[in-house]
Write a structure and sequence with these properties.
mainly alpha, single chain, two-stranded antiparallel ribbon, 10 helices, globular, 197 residues
């Protein structure tokens, strides 16, 4: 999906340059793929609940998410099925999007931005995977560059603390709400795996 978006953006730029046209790709395409904070906009574009999980804000956003998904996903699939992985991923992403929308509509600081704000990325879904496997196997060891071996529970705690602090900082606050929504679903889903910790 990311490659298709990049190809489409480059194609539009080339065509516009060749024909001396003006077309803002982001302005015209983004509203149809990004998840909006505004409820009325969402009701007109309900498919964005899923399309937003596959769209990213640039190469580094995509790369970081895919590396995280690969690492955490491998741990998840060591113990649990692909079916549980897919269910956790998609529902976690959806719950993350809805928490993002809820926050932008009830918290006064963000409510003024709701008509124009939108959210993209797989981070909420990845946080759901991370919290699900963390609660399922909290002491699973993980090796980190420059840090060494720590357990999965500490990695999850660090990510949650970063998200909580980043909301107060105001940088991409909406994205951090989506992360926390995914994390909440992931934690809840672990209760339904019916296996010992």
């Amino acid at each position: 999906v990311a490659i298709l978006m990049w190809v489409a953006r480059i194609t539009v730029k080339v065509v516009c340059a060749f024909w001396n046209l003006s077309f803002d790709f982001h302005q015209w395409v983004w509203p149809y793929v990004a998840f909006p904070a505004d409820v009325n906009t969402f009701l007109h574009h309900p498919w964005t609940l899923l399309t937003s999980l596959f769209i990213h804000n640039g190469f580094w956003h995509l790369l970081f998410n895919m590396v995280m998904l690969y690492v955490i996903g491998r741990f998840f699939l060591q113990y649990l099925s692909q079916k549980k992985f897919l269910i956790t991923y998609f529902i976690g992403g959806v719950v993350g999007n809805f928490l993002y929308m809820l926050a932008f509509n009830i918290i006064p600081t963000f409510a003024r931005l709701a008509p124009v704000a939108s959210c993209v990325g797989a981070s909420g879904a990845i946080m759901a995977i991370m919290l699900a496997i963390t609660l399922y196997r909290p002491n699973h060891p993980i090796g980190l560059l420059f840090i060494g071996r720590i357990t999965l529970k500490w990695v999850a705690i660090i990510f949650i603390v970063i998200d909580l602090l980043s909301i107060a900082d105001g940088q991409n606050a909406g994205g951090h709400f989506a992360h926390l929504g995914g994390a909440l679903y992931g934690a809840a889903s672990a209760l339904f795996f019916h296996h010992p910790m």
